[in-house]
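Researcher: Please translate sequence to structure tokens.
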Amino acid sequence: MARVLGDDFKELVRTQSDIVAIISQTVALQPRRGGREFVGLCPFHDDHTPSFTVSPERQTYRCWACGAGGDVYGFVMNYDRLNFREALEMLAQRANVPIPQTWRRDAGSAEESKDNKNRWYEMLAWAEQVCHECLLTSNEARHAREYFRSRHLAPGTIEKFKLGYHPADWNWLINQARGKYSPDELATVRLAGQRSSGEGFRDEALFIDRVIFPIRDNRARTVAFGGRVIPGSSTEFGGKYMNSSESPLFSKSRLVYAFDHARDAIGKAGTVVVMEGYMDCIMAHQSGITNVVATLGTALTEHHVSFLKRFSRKVVLVFDGDEAGQNATERSLPRFLAQQIDLRVLTLPGDQDPADFLEGNSPEAFTALVDRAAEAWDFKLSGLIRRHGVASIDARHQVCEEMLETICQVPVASSTGQLGGEWQLRESIILGRLSQRLGISEPTLRQRLVELRGAQTSAKTRENLSTGVNSGGTDRAARATGPLFPEKPTNQWKMEREALELILLCPESCADMRSEISPTEITNPDLRALLEVCLETAADGPWPGFEQVLTAVDDLRLKQLLVALESHGREVNIRKELVPHCLEHFRYQRHMAGLVNATNRVAGEDGSVPGSGTGANGTAVATSEERQRLQLAIEQNQSRMARRMQQPRPT
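Model: Translation complete:
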């Protein structure tokens, strides 16, 4: 297993990178055990109870539910979808650790390729700055500056959000980039696109004669832009707002606007307020209400909620009060009920948008309304009652059916069963309140819910049978990598796991393992790869410990396995007294392999077991009694090994 980079440099970057600080940019972590551990919701699966643990002492993370784990490199690789070299470069720059010239030479074409994310981020940051400077200083931007003044934006707010302007010139950005970035590169990050004729490039339409809103990811890196038509502009294409197209760095269904400015305030307030528009969000921040983000021209998705709930359990949606906005919010409700968050919906008085409300009212008045926002299920029920009423039997029946249909759409299945248990309690509370509001007994509501779920399940089963779809889906992490530990481990696998755990946690006591255990004896490919790393890292020196191996490994799955082995080894109290016990197992394994080989030899290549004589190729073969003795020896050794695996290990 060849090394691409020196372990000394990798270890220096790792020790200079605070894993708690880096993961905290993505996950809201809470200290536990006096700060020796931190816990939070796992970002790699749909986590509902904190199963994600970070150890500052060992500089590792692990999710006890989905198996994700590793060091700071592993987290950046997994979360940002980077390879090891890209993760190392990002962390080295963050820690101000100079990158060796030998590494730069080794990087070759990979560093210079168009998909180099650091260059993409650089281009987007450059575009943000030139548009911002244009807004502040260009004569062409006079009407853009006037627009922001009419919206009562302070200069400090414009600077904080790096708002900008792009002139009514389809080649402005391309011309600004001459000597820095090619049009083809600009097109990669959606700053430019091909002309309709197919010949050459032009700036993207979202920029032309529009005020520009940079969109940043949760690490405060610019990844896209939004453009708004200026009132009175001659621009006749696109809607009022346009966003960058999806790119390798940007997915509008996963990002929210202004999170980089709102993150700390969300943690302090314990609430995240979600608005629809850039200007609404910016005006809230200018008013001092900084726990506010905005969606990017889309409805709030499950990805948005899964992301936001890592930082706050309470999410308040402040959407426009028109009928379209109300209906869209109601339709999205089933997707959020199972998220185990306190989801609220706020409609402002007079169907005002937040910016208008804040212009005529104090920040305290807005905050008071947020605190009193209706729970999402109650918002849905109130909307149905306004629509249908409850005066007649038919109206009450209609409201009841639609509420129960909403509830039965909640995806409560879970491989652990935990979500189902949590949802059952919430469901009981909702049914109890629904019974009170509609005057229908709770048992009747529950029976009807069972009927609706049965009909829904039957319909889904028929659909799966007709399309060949397997309804038993698995978690994204499990689909991508498979389980690190088998559900039903064999004795052989247990032996191999124990050997690696001893090497990682008791390296000073494992000198005999170098000559006793060969990688060819390890049947599990992941464990075999780790043993090869240990052998290569050790060379002629002592066995490496956990941290040395973690530094040496570049593969994300092997990093996850390393952390899982180290955690399991500590759980079962792995110790040096087990080394002879482990080696004895491998000796038995080799002895059994020898017996099997001997049995195969005496049987002859044709597989026959004659009394005595020759096999099909003329070689001598043994008697059936000799073969029986060998077979008996194999069975006895197998039984002996099985019994030993069941016995308590030495103390």
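Researcher: Any highlights?
Model: Residues 442-467 form the longest helix (26 residues).
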